[in-house]
Amino acid sequence: MIKSKLLWEFIEGVDVRIKNVTEFLNDICPELEYRVAKIHDPFGPAVVDDTMQLLVISQETIQGGMKINEIRKANDLPELHLLPLQLIDEPNPGPNEEKKISSSNTRIRMLGTVIHPIIPNTKIPRSPYIIGLTGGIASGKSGVAKHLTDLGAHVIYCDDIGHEVYKAGKPCFDALLVYFGKRIIADNGEVNRKILGEIVFSDKKELDKLNSIVWPHILEEVENIINNTDKKVVVVEAAVMLMAGWQNRCHEVWTTVVPRKEVISRLVNRNGLTEEQAVARVEAQPPSTFFVEHANVVFCPYWEVDYTRQQVLKAWELLQGRIAQLHEGKLQCDEGKRH
Ligand SMILES: CC(C)(COP(=O)(O)OP(=O)(O)OC[C@H]1O[C@@H](n2cnc3c(N)ncnc32)[C@H](O)[C@@H]1O)[C@@H](O)C(=O)NCCC(=O)NCCS
Ligand SMILES: Nc1ncnc2c1ncn2[C@@H]1O[C@H](COP(=O)(O)OP(=O)(O)OP(=O)(O)O)[C@@H](O)[C@H]1O
């Protein structure tokens, strides 16, 4: 049920939420007798429990309360007295936030902030500071990367490097030709990515092989660029960051998430896929929760572009504070050379 909610990936597991509710109830009234129930549909025990008398609801869920009474009636149970509570206004709603106090607003406000603590990476030099930017297909990574470029970061696009490393004459070209054969070579003598894509995205074994050939060369090129930049912050944009284990070469991982429905509609509009093909592409990838679980900072490029920019600006300003702390010695990182 929670998957229909905005930024549901931030919602804690049901057991944690039950524990928090229980602690809250104990805190405000230790004598209270209560039972906290997990619900798997919009009604829960309210439609079957004959000991219940009263249902406390919010003004916006009155319809739900009436539906519960309808079902109780059909189940030969007495109707519940409905007690609607007034909604409390959000005193300072930001753009795209709800006008009432709500947990959606709390989740929106987490965007651009550190949601999982940053464990100092002592295996890489402290400068430049490396951000791994990842996320699912069409989740807005490139847009976020562009805002970061505007703010002064050096952005490395791994998709582009991936295309470069198997250009004719480059290190991976022969290896791909030997393994996949002439069928992947276009008339102009270059690798035909459309054909290669069709082969690897329909066969995991082939994708693993392609990755094993190409990833070490992408990483080498990324390290090369990092070693030669004069920027203080480098952003490595890679959809495959976490699958390739490149986060170990970063100080932080940032990710983008947008609702699944929106991703599918972008794939249909941007990539010209049918809805069925778009769903298949999304399902072939790790779920959005995977990216959020592994990320320190999350963006949701779902609304107007300027609002994405605001999320990125917030993250950037907070990042400057962390980098300053690192240089004051409050956070630890190795001084040594990158390897
Ligand atoms: C499979 C290939 C030939 C498809 O080329 P094509 O031009 O059609 O797509 P493009 O490179 O622009 O990638 C589009 C998207 O596909 C996804 N994707 C690409 N490679 C992979 C991969 N190895 N594993 C999972 N998803 C991938 C990403 O979401 C990416 O943003 C090409 O992506 C490729 O050579 N991939 C292997 C190298 C790689 O991992 N590159 C990604 C580095 S981030
Ligand atoms: N805030 C936004 N509002 C509306 N559309 C957006 C927004 N951000 C991105 N888009 C659109 O969504 C699509 C995907 O965005 P983008 O290319 O940045 O994603 P991506 O994660 O880099 O994609 P991929 O990895 O698939 O190349 C683009 O067509 C872009 O115009």
TrEMBL record:
The keyword ATP-binding applies. Gene3D superfamilies: HUPs (3.40.50.620), P-loop containing nucleotide triphosphate hydrolases (3.40.50.300). The keyword Nucleotide-binding applies. SUPFAM superfamilies: P-loop containing nucleoside triphosphate hydrolases. Pfam families: CoaE. GO terms for molecular function: ATP binding; dephospho-CoA kinase activity. This is Dephospho-CoA kinase.
